[in-house]
């Protein structure tokens, strides 16, 4: 049976130390998972149940070892960076216990949840979905996936974002309100998770706008760096 239109390419991530690829199914993102970021967004930093939104898989932008161009999207004048640890699942399931959740992780990557903040703020004010703010083309730049078999399961370590060499975000993975294992367990109560799912695990404080011509450098301890030139 033939497709009536050309089949869209499957989004996939390169894997550090392997010629193979990690095919992406869904992209989940947790909101306000660092207390300081929750406060800067005007929210309660207490340990309330987490909430999630999604990005399309084809909104991901693979970032290689060299600086990668990140297109500035239309319909915004306030495009914000949010540096995040990204989790790639190698095994799925429903109602995954917290104690077993990390067994489902294939690996970790550095990612950015780029956000048209003006459109997100408008959506919040009107009680509308966040898609226009969060799901722009190329709004999920992401580095290669590091297998957990090689790097372990990071529970602490620096997570930073610099713009033109000036550090704008600086936090520690230990500051997450909900741990990686807790996020996986919680999500699996609402969705049947599957191999190929990604979870963007939240951002520390310091989010802010980036402009055309600026260079962003994101880093997570043990995972190296990614470099993006905004065009």
UniProtKB/TrEMBL annotation:
<dbReference type="GO" id="GO:0046872">
    <property type="term" value="F:metal ion binding"/>
</dbReference>
<dbReference type="InterPro" id="IPR011234">
    <property type="entry name" value="Fumarylacetoacetase-like_C"/>
</dbReference>
<keyword id="KW-0479">Metal-binding</keyword>
<dbReference type="GO" id="GO:0018773">
    <property type="term" value="F:acetylpyruvate hydrolase activity"/>
</dbReference>
<dbReference type="Pfam" id="PF01557">
    <property type="entry name" value="FAA_hydrolase"/>
</dbReference>
<feature type="domain" description="Fumarylacetoacetase-like C-terminal">
    <location>
        <begin position="27"/>
        <end position="230"/>
    </location>
</feature>
<protein>
    <recommendedName>
        <fullName>Fumarylacetoacetase-like C-terminal domain-containing protein</fullName>
    </recommendedName>
</protein>
<dbReference type="InterPro" id="IPR036663">
    <property type="entry name" value="Fumarylacetoacetase_C_sf"/>
</dbReference>
